[in-house]
Recover the amino acids of this structure.
């Protein structure tokens, strides 16, 4: 039984190593040649596996890009977002969520730009992966907006729906890219602009905030 368990563990570790190698290969390929189309065959060849292995591991081309976007989302910046979600003050949750997202966008800037462009050209493949990631982001944004409302932090007359739309805009990759690429701002400066804009658009003046 011990030998069988050991064999199963080794196989599982080997399978995970293969999975990560394929994702590493896809990531690097996107960085190296962002303007060139990419195929499953090319990824398989570069990763040193059979084409069928990619479908066995990820299920489909869309599943491959799902796995890549998931790794990006749960990588850089994710811990900061988790800490923001747990913070007892909704204002700090808003700041932390914007900062965590910016850290992720900064770390994977080039690849995320490529994925965004590919999503428009490949709606059934990359597009589906990006859509699922954006759906998860939408749920997180809505939670932040609802918390701001519950704690009485929103400006007078501002509802959850409008607050959600504002946070969605500012927490997205396009907002980060416009400031980092279009204005040449450093990541920390981008965060400062995003946070200041969000607070100015959403939050009640300190004098109007509820007092404990």
């Amino acid at each position: 039984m011990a030998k069988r368990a050991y064999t199963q563990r080794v196989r599982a570790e080997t399978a995970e190593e293969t999975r990560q190698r394929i994702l590493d290969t896809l990531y690097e390929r996107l960085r190296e040649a962002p303007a060139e189309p990419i195929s499953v065959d090319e990824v398989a060849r570069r990763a040193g596996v059979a084409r069928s292995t990619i479908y066995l591991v990820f299920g489909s081309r869309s599943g491959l890009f799902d796995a890549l976007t998931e790794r990006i989302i749960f990588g850089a910046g994710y811990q900061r977002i988790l800490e923001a979600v747990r913070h007892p003050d909704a204002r700090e949750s808003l700041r932390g969520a914007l900062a965590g997202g910016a850290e992720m966008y900064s770390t994977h800037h080039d690849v995320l730009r490529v994925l965004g462009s590919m999503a428009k050209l490949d709606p059934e493949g990359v597009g589906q992966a990006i859509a699922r990631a954006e759906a998860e982001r939408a749920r997180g944004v809505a939670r932040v907006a609802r918390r701001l409302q519950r704690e009485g932090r929103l400006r007078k007359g501002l509802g959850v729906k409008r607050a959600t739309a504002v946070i969605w805009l500012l927490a997205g990759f396009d907002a980060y890219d416009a400031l980092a690429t279009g204005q040449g701002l450093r990541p920390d400066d981008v965060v400062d602009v995003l946070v200041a804009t969000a607070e100015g658009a959403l939050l009640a003046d300190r004098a109007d905030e509820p007092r404990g």
The CA atoms of residues 74 and 104 lie 9 Å apart.
